[in-house]
Amino acid sequence: MTPNDNDDNRSVALYWDFENLGGRLVEARYGEGAYAKPDNRFKAQEPLIDVQALVELAASFGPVAINRAYGNWQFFGRYRDALLQSAVELIQLFPPGASAKNGADIKLCLDATEDISRFAHIGTVIIIGGDSDFMPVAQKIKAAGRTLIGIGNRRNTNKHWAKSCHEFRYYDTLVEPEPGPQAQAAAEARDAAAPPPADPAADMLRRALRLLAETRGEAWVNKANVWPMIKRLDPTFDTKDHGYASFTEMLKALDTVVEVKKGETDHLLRLRSS
To answer: Which of 80, 108, 159, 254 is the most buried (most CB within 10 A)?
Structure first.
C-alpha cells in the first residue's frame, strides 16, 4: 500500500498481541516449541522485540492515536523502558485457568472493533500478531472502510490471516535479526565506545525521510510531510535545540544530507546517496 498524502491527517490505531510476537521470536531463535516449554514461558522474557522500530513504522502511516499492547506483563518487565519510551498502553491479561492462553487476541479484536466504530478519525489499523484468530476482525475493519496492515513473524504467521489484510509486513524484513549473546555483547561494547552522533538533527532527518520513502515506495517525498513525521518520531524535537531557527533553516544547513527539488507549489526532498 502507498498512503496518499491527503490521508496524512488520518490517525493510526496500533494493536499488539505482544506475547504472540515475542513467543514467535523465541522459537525462531531457539527452535520450534521452545516458548511452549513452561521453564521458558513462565520466566522473565528476553527483550527480542524492537518496539521502537514497529512504532516508527506505524507513525509513517499517520499520527498514532492508539498504541495498545496486550499480554501477561509479569514476564515482560525487561521491555519496560522500550514500552515507556514509545508510549505504549499496556493491557494486563492473566490466564483465567491452568491454560497459559490469556485471551489477548479476543480482547484485542473486541477493542479494535469498538474503536473503529467510535473514532471516525482512525484511517489505518495495524495489528501485530500472526494468528488466524484475527481474520474475523479483519473483515470488520475492511467493511468499515479502514486500511488494515498486519505484522507478524514470517515463519509462524497464518497465511490466511496475512492475505486478509490490505498489506502484511513480516517482522523479519522490518528489523535486523537479534544477535546471539556473544555478538550482542560485542555490539554493546562497540556502542559504549562509540561517540554520540555528530548532529542528532541530521540523524532525525534521515530517519524521517527513510521511513516516508519506504512507506510510499518513492525516494522523493513531499517536504510538507517531513516535519510532521519528525514530530511523530519525537514529539519533543525542536529545531532551536539544535541551533536552527526553523525547519527550513535546518534543511538548508543539512544540504549534505538532503537533496531538494523545487516545485511550483511545494518542494520534494530525498536523502543524498552516501
So the answer is: 108
Q: Give me the residues of the chain with pLDDT under 50, please.
A: 1-6, 183
- The boundaries of the domain holding residue 211 are 200-271
How far is 273 from 262, CA to CA, in rounded Å? 19
The 221-222 sheet, strands edge to edge: 221-222, 267-271, 258-262
Place of cell 517536504: 223
Say if residues 90 and 123 touch (Cβ distance below 8 Å).
no
Of all residues in the chain, the percent with pLDDT exceeding 70 is: 85
Give the per-residue pLDDT at 165: 95
Looking at 164, 192, 220, the residue that finishes a domain is 192
Task: Express each pLDDT in 241-268 by its tens digit.
Answer: 999 999 999 999 999 999 999 877 678 9
What pLDDT is attached to residue 245? 93
CB 269, CB 208: distance < 8 Å: no
Residue from 133, 85, 90 nearest 109 by CA:
133
Domain closes at, from 138, 160, 192: 192
Q: How far is CA 65 from the centre of its chain?
A: 13
Can you give the pLDDT at residue 4? Answer: 43
- Number of domains present in the structure of the chain: 2
Residue 2: its pLDDT value, please? Answer: 43
What pLDDT does 36 receive? 85
Same domain, 184 and 253: no
Residue 2 lies in a domain: no
